[in-house]
Amino acid sequence: MSDFEKAIADLDLDLFSKIDSQSTQNDKQSFLAIQLAVRNLRPGYKYLEIGSYLGGTIQPHLLDDRCAKIYSIDKRPEKQPDARGFDYTYLNNSTERMLEKLQTVAPEKMDKLVTIDGDSRSIAPTQISEKIDLCFIDGEHTDEAVLSDFKFCLEVLDQNGCIAFHDAQITYNGIATCIDHLEKNGVSFRAYCLPSIVFVIEIGDFAMHNEPAIFERLVNNHRSYLYSLQDNDHYRKFANKYPFRTVRNFISRVLGGNVSQ
Ligand SMILES: C[S@@+](CC[C@H](N)C(=O)[O-])C[C@H]1O[C@@H](n2cnc3c(N)ncnc32)[C@H](O)[C@@H]1O
Q: In ligand 1, which atom is closest to the CA atom of 167?
């Protein structure tokens, strides 16, 4: 077994060691579990990512000989809107900087990487010349962008494949709209959240959940459920502060919303 094969089978975080990725240890292990499932289902798989920044989430796919092609789409705006209510800034955010960093990971494998500077709202899916097996959405964290990214991914995805989202505790309303879209269009799917906050949609017949690394995380997804709620808990703390709590109490008493019969 090669070093890489052993590392991915062990969900070894060392596979992320060369470039920082803005994700928790549990997220990174979920990314590796997803990669493991996809590379076993589809040796020679193609990966597409929306939102790459420094290439942190590209590095394990770059290292993987079973990954035949990587598409990285990133708009690289100075500031990006965010569903939490304030803009986000990524400093020195350029494709050149990402490529320099990825060169240090696997210089001999860079030819399988294609970068596209742009946004799914303006890029034609025909720019992706082959069917994709795994899409990862981690770009603009707004509900509108997530839905647009998702529809783009659906267009370029193989009939059976996976679309995963990072930071699901932020873009959950957008993700809910993506699920509605699948239901309304009669697309068969399975969806679940992995720790910490990686939302996975298996489209069609793509049984990633049979991979033991996914299954183990799926049955222990208390780590995902509790993390998501606790990450948003400051909103409840805020709503429970004076004077908001007093006002809510008053409204509740007037409407009788605090009384069960
Ligand atoms: C959270 S970072 C990606 C981090 C990366 N996936 C990782 O974990 O290493 C978000 C990236 O999305 C990009 N971005 C922002 N708005 C975008 C949009 N509308 N379309 C595509 N990418 C966008 C930003 O330039 C930034 O590089």
A: 1
